[in-house]
From TrEMBL:
Similarity remark: Belongs to the DNA glycosylase MPG family.
A GO biological-process term: base-excision repair
Organism, scientific name: Oryza glumipatula
Protein name: DNA-3-methyladenine glycosylase II
Record bears the keyword DNA repair: yes
Catalytic activity of the protein: Hydrolysis of alkylated DNA, releasing 3-methyladenine, 3-methylguanine, 7-methylguanine and 7-methyladenine
Pfam family, one: Pur_DNA_glyco
Length: 121
């Protein structure tokens, strides 16, 4: 899984990457996933994303704003964002279950299920 801590140590703030779209390296992604498809099924789900990126616990505490390996880079801001409730947190408090803390780019097929809970921001 790719879970990015988004605040200082001791503060519960993180972003779980549930799906992504391949920009390059499709053959490597397919090899790591053991699938030859180029369909969204290849990268929809946090475990699939981690496997496709070749992540292991060795990557824990890796800084994402320094060159080398896995990095977060600036890119164009998507024009249309979808928001909705997170997936798989039924154990949480009702206000957290319903909170619009899930984000996706509108129009992309690379969104993990369920898609019907997402609305334009």
């Amino acid at each position: 899984m790719l879970n990015v801590v988004a605040d200082k140590e001791g503060v519960g703030a993180a972003v779980l990457i549930r799906s992504c779209a391949p920009v390059s390296g499709l053959a490597t992604i397919q090899q790591r996933r053991g699938q030859q498809t180029d369909k969204p099924l290849l990268l929809t789900g946090p475990g699939k994303v981690g496997q496709a990126l070749g992540l292991s616990t060795d990557w824990s505490n890796h800084p994402l704003y320094t060159p080398g390996g896995l990095e977060v880079l600036d890119g164009p801001e998507p024009e249309n964002i979808l928001v909705g409730p997170r997936v798989g947190i039924e154990y949480a408090s009702p206000e957290h279950v319903a909170a619009p803390w899930r984000f996706a780019v509108a129009g992309t097929p690379w969104i993990s299920a369920p898609k019907n809970t997402l609305i334009p921001r």
